[in-house]
Amino acid sequence: MIITDKPFIAISDSHAAVQECNVTRESVELLADLRRENIRFAHWKGNSHLLLSLEGKTDLEILVHPEDRLLFEMIVKKRFYKKLIAQPWNAYPSNEDWIGFDFTTGNLLHLHTHYDLVTGIDYGKYLHLPWREQFFRNLKIDKLTGWPIPIPEMEALVLLIRIQANAIHKKKAISESKQNELRQLVSQVQVQRFRDLCQELQLNVPGDLDFEIRRIVQDNSLPAMIHLSSFFYHQPVDCVKAKWTSIKTVYYKYFFKAIRVAGRYLKLVQLKKTMAEGGKIIAFVGSDGAGKSTLCKDVIKWLTFKIDAHYFYFGKRPFIKSNDKQLFSKTDFLFNNGIFSRYFRKMAGSFYYLLLTNKKINMLRLGKQVSKKSSLVICDRFPQKDIMGFFDGPKLQTEKRSWLSGFEMKQFQKLFLTGNDVVFRLNLSAEVAARRKPDHDYKLIEQKCINLSSITYGSAKVIDVDAEKPYGQVLLEIKRRIWENL
Predict the structure, then answer these.
(1) From 19, 26, 89, 241, which residue has the greatest number of CB atoms within 10 Å?
(2) In whole angstroms, what is the distance from residue 298 CA to residue 50 CA?
(3) DSSP label at residue 267
(4) What is the per-residue pLDDT across 317-332, written as a single tens digit (0 to 9) for each?
(5) What range defines the domain where residue 386 resides?
């Protein structure tokens, strides 16, 4: 495998035509470090999509021998991986989550790290197989990637048991992807070697094993898959365990059903893994045409691959988007572009700006709460009190002072004190901004570009970004700087 600055490899697989796959440099260097320190590890399941995992598109399911746990953690920390905390319904014994970053592509690598043969089945239920030492004795090196993986007989056996565990406790049928994965594995199985492995694991073998394997390989027989899956599943004693009572399991099932049906009417809910070292509020500011909204959208998509992150919009019509749903607010009708809202704004006059600022204060307080619970908050625009009249700043500060202007400034002071952690200041010239937004007022754009550098954001770390560069370069630079500041 040849790794270059553009981590590209060409692979030839006996099960597929020649294809191309971008393996991240980070995954290659991680493998080298683990080998160098003689860590006992393997990518223990899901090896049919190992290449996608090394690209950062799916999880890396790594089994690490518990005696090497401290050394493994030292290696990933040295490589600046961040530890994640799973939500209660996804947390299982002998499991950890680490997230890494590939500097070249900006991709995240999720290490779903196991220190025993444990995998989740349903909320609170997990499968534990008592064959860890035997597993490590039955590994091979994958020719395409260089990663240690189980021999086909071991991986097929584990997959058969996992399929039945899921069928009993969660799903009623074997998914098409699992059928394809099992068929691919079984096609590589040597029957005698499979029998020897079962003897080592003290498992009985069905008398029609050869026949059932042929049915799976040649006919993709679902009954044969179910038969073998059920046969092996019922032999390990108490392999399915539960963390909680069944009451809690049922609670979480209905909890997720409620979120799917009425998620936008609920409070902000943390569904994904959170940062072990704490959350952050990250804001993007800049003139029209700087790409704030597009960057925020792509950053949220990038982070929510595994990390709990939420989108806060602080413009004229502020809102929160969480878990792909815009959250409902009882004050939304005041800030939309409907007939009632326009009439209300006309009638409310200056009071409207106080209501708008108050909404942003409440949003920011909520953002602060969720960041303290170790989630990330991405802010599209951010209120400031240095420039009056625009840039989401105070609107009522005129030469003639009034109690309204004084009250508004007090509100902005609350915003300033609540604050954020990191601000990306997207810099570009008025000419470039105007080309990107030809329908906007050029003088206003020019004024924004000139005044952007003079705005302060309290104790937040301000990072200047050249927003005139090609979009892909800007996004990659921002991903790198976010990673440095998590």
Answers:
(1) 26
(2) 25
(3) P
(4) 999 999 999 999 888 8
(5) 280-484
